[in-house]
Design goal:
539 residues; alpha+beta; Udp-n-acetylmuramoylalanyl-d-glutamate--2,6- Diaminopimelate Ligase, Chain: A, domain 1; Beta-Lactamase; Alpha-Beta Plaits; 4 domains; five-stranded antiparallel beta sheet; 19 helices; 16% strand
């Protein structure tokens, strides 16, 4: 049973992380520079394969003649160290085998948790492999290592879930479990059909009310037996642990699960604090980036952007919706977008700013194929969203220097506004170049509204005449202009005979005093009609 990770550190660093209060060297070489690649939980009844440079946790190992045999075997396997529970009375045979096999033997202080030791060691291996830790990352990695450790001790695949049944960590040994667990791991969330069944049948209430693991023979249709244990810090329930088991746990394994829940509670709290800090940092850096200028260059250095071109994406709701539901969906989009961008654009950053989600995406170049690739990725993301709120995305232009990202943000915001202004046309992703004319018209509308300019001239005369006489001259003019003077098509659009339509055109020129043969006058009339001053066509 392997509760380790594929990373590498040195023994001195791992011992330093646990501290002398937990581990004491008892025999064998100190070798602080010796490599460590994984952590293995030793089960005397089911001996695991021990890879070279492993630290072996001797859970249940007795200090008797069998210890010398174990140390000899570990030396032949190339293991780095063995940890056994104190009190440890090392005799001469064990000491000689430890020196001969180059195996360091440590004593673990009484009362210390094997699970916590495995978690700390595995977490340290992850940190070494990554070369450091981002804010909040250590806690997340510890949760995964802890899930692996608990899985080994229970001999059962484990998930750690929050209160919304989102998977925050899981053990690596999920092969051979049932379909619901497979779907849970794939989606990192318990499928709603199973979650609803568990909720409606009161199983969550049962788990959260119990201070011991709860066995469920049939938690939901098609689900194998489970044991669940609440994760609680003080009076606050943080989530739960779920193990896929063959039957009820033994008293010893129940005690192990209870102990694990206490450790997990601390790590979940630490992960929450780290995530909050990481989120705040991400929002601050992204906000600085899209403001452009010197601050953007400094933020880019912190994010290791380098000097590559970049563009801004903005995702927002297509239409106004219920406020609470929209807020939850926007948070979900921000989280999902980061995951979606990572494989293709690993240096991209995304965060919620106000009522929208912004992303800055470094690209290789400003060429049309590179820009199209960003648009395609945004379109794919929009299509795959399963939120109740419908979203659309504006794509800003690519800038060569991050100090110019404010311009890209303006482009993205302008494109998003156009999409929102006409939600029924089916477009969900656009760059400013795609919707430039519509964007300019919206800006003209803003100026007209700001200056309180009212409809005047020929269109005002026609509107007044229609209101007074119940005619349809203004819709007739609009149809004629939109069909470029094609009387047949324009008449069909307003559902009148073309002779009736021609008569209306004559009346329009008489009443409004317009010359429809003048291209400048036609353009002026079309522009006013497009600036939001559209009459309603009836017949």
């Amino acid at each position: 049973m392997d509760g380790g990770v594929s990373a590498e550190a040195d023994l001195g660093r791992l011992v330093e992380r646990l501290g002398s209060t937990l581990l004491t060297i008892k025999a064998g070489p100190r070798q602080p520079g010796r490599a460590v690649t994984t952590v293995v939980l030793h089960d005397p009844l089911d001996r695991p394969d021990v890879p070279p440079d492993a630290v072996v946790l001797g859970v249940g190992v007795a200090v008797d003649d069998s210890l010398a045999t174990l140390v000899e075997a570990l030396g032949k396997a190339g293991a780095t160290a063995l940890v056994v529970r104190e009190p440890v009375a090392i005799d001469g045979v064990v000491a000689r085998e430890a020196e001969r096999g180059n195996v360091s033997i440590f004593g673990l202080v009484q009362g210390a948790s094997w699970i916590h030791v495995a978690t700390l060691l595995s977490g340290a291996l992850h940190l070494s492999a990554d070369g450091g830790s981002s804010v909040g990352g250590d806690a997340d990695r510890d949760l995964f290592a802890l899930a692996n450790s608990l899985s080994a001790l229970l001999d059962a695949p484990v998930t750690i879930e929050d209160l919304s049944s989102r998977v925050v960590a899981f053990s690596a040994d999920q092969a051979g479990t049932d379909e619901p667990r497979r779907l849970t791991i794939l989606g990192l969330r318990v499928p709603e059909i199973y979650n609803r069944y568990v909720r409606e049948h009161g199983m969550f209430r049962l788990v959260y009310a119990s201070d011991r693991p709860v066995f469920m023979q049939n938690p939901a249709p098609g689900v194998h037996p489970r044991v669940a244990m609440r994760v609680q810090a003080g009076d606050e329930i943080l989530g739960s642990i779920w193990a896929a088991v063959a039957g009820p746990l033994t008293p010893e394994r129940e005690a192990t699960m209870i102990e694990a829940a206490r450790v997990i509670a601390l790590d979940m709290l630490r992960a929450r604090v780290g995530a909050d800090a990481s989120q705040r940092l991400g929002v601050a850096l992204l906000s600085t980036l899209i403001e452009g200028g010197a601050g953007a260059r400094e933020a880019a250095q912190q994010l290791s952007f380098g000097s590559s071109p970049a563009c801004v994406l903005v995702f927002g709701q297509l239409q106004p919706d219920e406020e609470v539901r929209t807020a939850a969906d926007i948070q979900r989009v921000a989280s999902t977008l980061r995951t979606h961008l990572r494989p293709t654009y690993p240096r991209a950053v995304a965060a919620q700013l106000g009522g929208a989600v912004y992303a800055v995406v470094p690209v290789r170049s400003a060429t049309p194929p590179a820009v199209q690739a960003v648009k395609d990725l945004a379109a794919e993301f929009i299509a795959r969203l399963d939120t109740t709120t419908e979203f659309c995305a504006g794509i800003g232009g690519v800038v060569e220097n991050v100090s110019e990202l404010a311009a890209s943000r303006r482009d993205a915001d302008a494109a998003l506004r156009v999409l929102r202004s006409n939600p029924r046309d089916g477009r969900r992703v656009a760059s400013l170049a795609d919707v430039l004319i519509e964007s300019l018209l919206l800006r003209l509308s803003d100026l007209i509204a700001a200056d309180r300019i009212e409809l005047a001239g020929p269109l005002a005369d026609l509107e007044e005449y229609d209101t007074k006489h119940g005619t349809e001259l203004l819709p007739t003019l609009q149809s004629w202009l939109e069909h470029f003077g094609d009387v047949t098509a324009a008449a069909r659009a307003v559902h009148v005979h073309k002779n009736t339509f021609r008569y209306r055109l004559d009346r329009i020129q008489q009443i409004a005093g317009v010359d429809l043969t003048d291209p400048d006058e036609r353009f002026g009339l079309m522009l006013q009609l497009r600036l939001g001053q559209r009459p309603t066509r009836t017949r």
